[in-house]
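Inverse folding, one chain.
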């Protein structure tokens, strides 16, 4: 059970929610943050219990979008509209972060089941989980 002291502002989240965050990334010398959409990849069981949430970055950089650890979603597709994407995007399952819930600005939308199945496969590839062949 989440206690009041665990988090100052709890937003209800579900796996597959697309959220706007200040996403952390590392350059050669320091940690930076960039405001961008991300998708909640954490299990709903933990979404209900934890003050932190695991997310995958969503980027408009289409370089290497064909890699098995990435999932491309067109903004004008039904999936892109449901997710609230404003630009053609790529979910990068190699770029994950655990952030406090209070760093989530708001929910933009949600990815449907078909995209989430593709994300599951991309996460398997990125994390080297059983069920996929790895090079």
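Residues assigned per position:
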């Amino acid at each position: 059970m989440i206690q009041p002291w665990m988090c100052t502002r709890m937003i209800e989240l579900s796996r597959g929610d697309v959220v706007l965050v200040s996403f952390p990334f590392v350059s050669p010398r320091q940690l930076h943050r960039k405001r961008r959409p991300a998708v909640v990849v954490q299990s709903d069981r933990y979404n209900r219990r934890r003050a932190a949430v695991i997310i995958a970055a969503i980027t408009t950089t289409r370089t290497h979008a064909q890699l098995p650890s990435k999932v491309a979603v067109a903004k004008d597709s039904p999936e892109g509209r449901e997710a609230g994407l404003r630009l053609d995007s790529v979910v990068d399952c190699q770029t994950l972060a655990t952030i406090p819930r209070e760093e989530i600005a708001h929910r933009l939308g949600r990815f449907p089941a078909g995209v989430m199945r593709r994300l599951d496969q991309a996460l398997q590839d990125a994390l080297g989980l059983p069920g996929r062949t790895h090079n």
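Residues 72 and 90 are 4 Å apart (CA to CA). The chain has a mean pLDDT of 89.
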